[in-house]
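Each field is listed here:
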Amino acid sequence: MNSSAPSSRHDARPVLTLSHVSKSFGSLLVLDDVSFRVHRGETICLLGPSGSGKSTLLRCINWLERPDSGEIQLGGVRIGITTGGLVMTDRDLSRVRTRIGMVFQHFALWPHMTVLQNVMEAPVQVQKRPRAAVRDEAEALLAKVGLSDKQDVFPAKLSGGQKQRVGIARALAMRPELLLFDEPTSALDPELVGEVLAVMRELALDGMTMVVVTHEMAFAREAASRIVFLDRGRVVETATPNAFFTAPASDRARQFLLRYAGNDGRRVAGLEAGSPT
């Protein structure tokens, strides 16, 4: 029932490989021997209870947090460590990070820049791409996320959902090989969640390679290629969405679906409302 292989509609070449990644903060073990691969065109949804290490894992992938042990490779290149075993220089690390886009919980837009300027800034300043070409691409990306009419607006005038869609456009403007989402709807009012998830579903259909930390069970079931379920820093279960949501292999996953997915979780886990956990 568990599966670590890509589905047949995705490229078999791994974009991201995590091998035995562990991370502690003091005496607290947050990630414990985490290993899995992400293949080109896949959407991997990281599910698990709060405190299970999901966000820390994303931060380790782009080296915002340094793992204590294990390896993380992007397209066969080890992140953070050189072939000689030394920690990468800031310049080398920055070069690798340009290949990974990240969408945060709290938008992180520059308030003194317009929407268009926010999207254009990194491609122009970091990647040194021609401003005119970047502007054309940025305008196309804003159209893609439904914000063509907001390109000259400052972030303070946007709703939370609009800010998050700008954040997605900004990440895409760097032409990343991999896009990371850290609970992108958690800071949004409920009525704004759908507009962000709609953009993410479209990216999944377009074949963007993504790793998504989310508590949106419906999105995970519809858009994910595979589910990676974490608990207490360990990968407990890896499965297709259909397998995970209809017949989870682990008791811990069944408990999670009961507790965190509400009535829908009870239904998809095949559990009655009164069933013991």
In short: Residues 190-206 form the longest helix (17 residues). Residues 263-269, 271-277 have pLDDT under 50 and may be disordered. Strands lie at 14-25, 28-39, 43-47, 69-74, 77-78, 100-103, 178-182, 210-213, 226-231, 234-239.
